[in-house]
Each structure stands twice: as structure tokens, then as C-alpha cells.
Amino acid sequence: MNALASTNRNFRHAARLLNLDSKFEKSLLMPYREIKFECTIPKDDGSLVSYVGFRVQHDNSRGPMKGGIRYHPKVEHDEVNALAQLMTWKTAVVNVPYGGAKGGIGCSPKDFSVSELERLTRVFTQKIHDVIGVNIDVPAPDMGTNAQTMAWISDEYSKFHGYSPAIVTGKPIELGGSLGREAATGRGVVFATEALLADHGKSIKGLTFVIQGFGNVGSWVARLIHERGGKIIAVSDVTGAVKNPNGLDIPALLEHKEKSGSLSNFDDGDMMNADELLIHECDVLVPCALSGVLTRENAGDVKAKFIIEAANNPTDPEADEILSKKGVVILPDIYANAGGVTVSYFELVQNNQHIMWDEEKVNAELKKYMAGAFNSIKSMCRTHECNLRMGAFTLGVSRVAQCTLLRGWGC
Ligand SMILES: NC(=O)C1=CN([C@@H]2O[C@H](COP(=O)(O)OP(=O)(O)OC[C@H]3O[C@@H](n4cnc5c(N)ncnc54)[C@H](O)[C@@H]3O)[C@@H](O)[C@H]2O)C=CC1
Ligand SMILES: O=C(O)CCC(=O)C(=O)O
Fold this sequence. Notes:
Elements: H1 3-17, H2 22-29, E1 33-42, E2 48-59, E3 65-71, H3 77-93, E4 100-105, H4 114-128, E5 137-141, H5 147-161, H6 181-199, E6 208-212, H7 216-227, E7 231-237, E8 240-243, H8 250-260, E9 270-272, E10 284-287, E11 306-308, H9 317-325, E12 329-331, H10 333-336, H11 339-353, H12 359-384, H13 388-406
Parallel strand pairs: 3-4, 3-5, 6-7, 6-10, 10-11, 11-12
Antiparallel strand pairs: 1-2, 2-4, 7-8, 8-9
Bound molecules: 1,4-dihydronicotinamide adenine dinucleotide and 2-oxoglutaric acid.
């Protein structure tokens, strides 16, 4: 199912549980502003290439809009809209004072040199500089972008508006980034997993995990689960998938990936068919890559007992239904991966106060936010007799609805 149709469906289900008026429901769903533009740059050989860029600002009732910038060939209008909307509910679930936005360019970053990537990012920034701002919309990294991308955005934006490090989060530490932001999404996923497992009388130690995606989020999830004694028996990325029934040596796999750029030819594991990864026998499945990977075609074959949605929107609603009927417990994206935006908020707090927290404080605060949100979601589950996804959606949507009404925007 299309990402936007799937996100809208979840929102509407939550709106029904909350008994929202239908006109009000429609206005909460409608994005605040969508922009689509062309980004043209000269390649290193002098030839011109053009890509389509997007920034969708979904909602600002709870504060400036917030969300990542994605560079990926699949970036298109509906997906960016869906991701922007998910940011609105996510910031509300963890109760940070921000709204929701998302942006990106439909391109393949691995096909560019560093200087081409810099030119593309600067052109992208020129196209959005007049609609973002520290009190309007603050971008951050997502798939295919990183701290360096944020440094270029901040530098280009500063040419128009004066030195503005707080125009982005997830920037390099040297330029005002927060300690712990790079690991924050993965660390938040692990705190969320611990909260869920504790609720089921279990812990990470001794359970088997399968992880799809080994980039920023996936590699941090793997590292932290490994440190806690979880057994990671299969991992994949765009280069392939590797398994070891006795548990992969994650530090060695990280080193191998760093050196070779690929998961292939890892001595301590066997390559496997990447399509089979999601249906591999395990206790906990953690998708950390693309949207829409769990579908009605593969959901029936999933063997995991828990799914932790570290990626945004990895589960189609049809798959959600099939998995729920099988008794699989799904920890939804708008909670599970909210550690990144939570530490982005901490980064802005530090920027505003011109101070730097130590990493211990960042991680301890993150743990508090993730634990608090889990308890609030469970409370919504009890009130509305619903699963964790609807617990998170009703929590996020009700907080946004309340601020919308308080600000006098209700219809
Ligand atoms: N970076 C952040 O702070 C946050 C990221 N997320 C979400 O987490 C997910 C991953 O993001 P990042 O780790 O930042 O991106 P990344 O670009 O650092 O890594 C993406 C990973 O996915 C892999 N991948 C791509 N296509 C694949 C495929 N077909 N099969 C298996 N693996 C594939 C890549 O090889 C790479 O390992 C995305 O859904 C993103 O929206 C969510 C919240 C915050
Ligand atoms: O850190 C942020 O502002 C946003 C991170 C993000 O894009 C996400 O949570 O999906």
C-alpha cells in the first residue's frame, strides 16, 4: 500500500477512537505547506543533472516543525507527505515541543562525489531557506544524509540569514551538535525495546534478533543490543544479508563493513537471501531501512514474536492486521524511533542556552523520555482497548488536537 494511504488509514482509525469531529479530523490531516522544486547541479565532468526536491511541513500547532532530509531514489511526493505526518504524531508521542515535517531529494547519494553532494545540498537549501527557520522548521538527518549534510545546510542558510547553527540538528559536534545525537535513534530503539520486553517479563539478554538495515540506525541498534547480551543472528543492508545462528560478532562485522563497504565475505557468517531476512526465525525483528517492507505477501511467514519499527512506516496496514492476528507484538515507529528527534530537541535546548551536556546526561534524559512515552502509550491502550500502534497514534493525535484547539484553530 502507498505510504500516504497507509499513514492516513492509521490516523483515521485513531481519530475514530478519539471521536474527533470529521471536519476537525480533515484539518489535522492536511499539511500546512508542501513544496516541490528542481535541484540542478553541474556534475564534476561539467554535465548538468536535475533532481526533484521536496519539503513538506505538516503541522506546527505544538511548535516549530521538525523532521529529517532523505536522499534516496524512492523519495517522492506521497512518501514525503506520509513521513512528515508521522513526524507530527512522533514529536507529540514523546512530548517534545515541535511539530512535523520531512524533506528530501529523489536521488542516489552513492552515485555522487563529495563535492557533487555538497553542491546538491546547497542548491536544495537555496530552494527552502525562506520557508525554514529556528522558529519555523528545523531539518535533521534521515536516510542518505548525515552530520556533514547538516553542516552544508547550516552554512548555506547562514549566507542568507546570518550565522544560524540551530537551523539544523544532527550537525557535527564542533558546530554545535549534541553528544549522543548520532547514536540517539538506535539508542532510543533499544530503550523502547527494553521497555516493551520488560512489560512482557523479558529482557534483551539471550533473545535472538534479526536486523534489516545497517546504516546509522541499524548499526547502532546492533551494537547496543550486542552489548546487552542479545544474540543478533542475521543482518542485511543494500549490499546483501549475513547470518550466523550462534550470533554475529557485531564489532567485527562493523569493522568489516567499514573496511570493505559491504556485508559480503564476512568470515564469521554465511551470506543469505536478503528477501528471506524478514521471515527468518527469531524472537525480535528490527526493520531499520525502508518503508513498506512488511506486506500482505510476507506477513504470514514472519516468525518473530516482536517487531520493533526502527524504520519509518515499515509495515503496511494489511500486514499489520495479519501480524496482529498471529499474536506478533509490534512496537510502532512513531514511538520506537523517536529517540532521534528527542535528542534533536536536546540539541536545540543546548544551542539556545549556549552550553553542552555530557553524553551521560543526554542518554539519561533520553531514557526518561522513552520510558515516559511508553507508559503514556500503555495508558492510551487501556483507555481505548487498542494495540500499541493505536495507543501511540491516539496519544500523538490527542496532544496535537488539544494544542490546535487551544490555539483557536479548531473548526
Ligand atoms: N537517522 C535518524 O536519526 C532517523 C532515522 N529513522 C529511520 O530509520 C531508517 C534508517 O535510517 P538511517 O539509518 O538514518 O539511514 P542510513 O542511510 O544511514 O542507512 C540506511 C540503511 O538501509 C540499508 N538499505 C537500503 N535499502 C535496503 C534494502 N532494500 N534492504 C536492506 N537494507 C537496505 C542501507 O544499505 C543502509 O544500511 C529510515 O527509515 C529512517 O527514516 C527514523 C528516525 C530517525
Ligand atoms: O531529528 C529530527 O529532527 C528528525 C528525525 C527524523 O527524521 C525522524 O524521526 O524520522
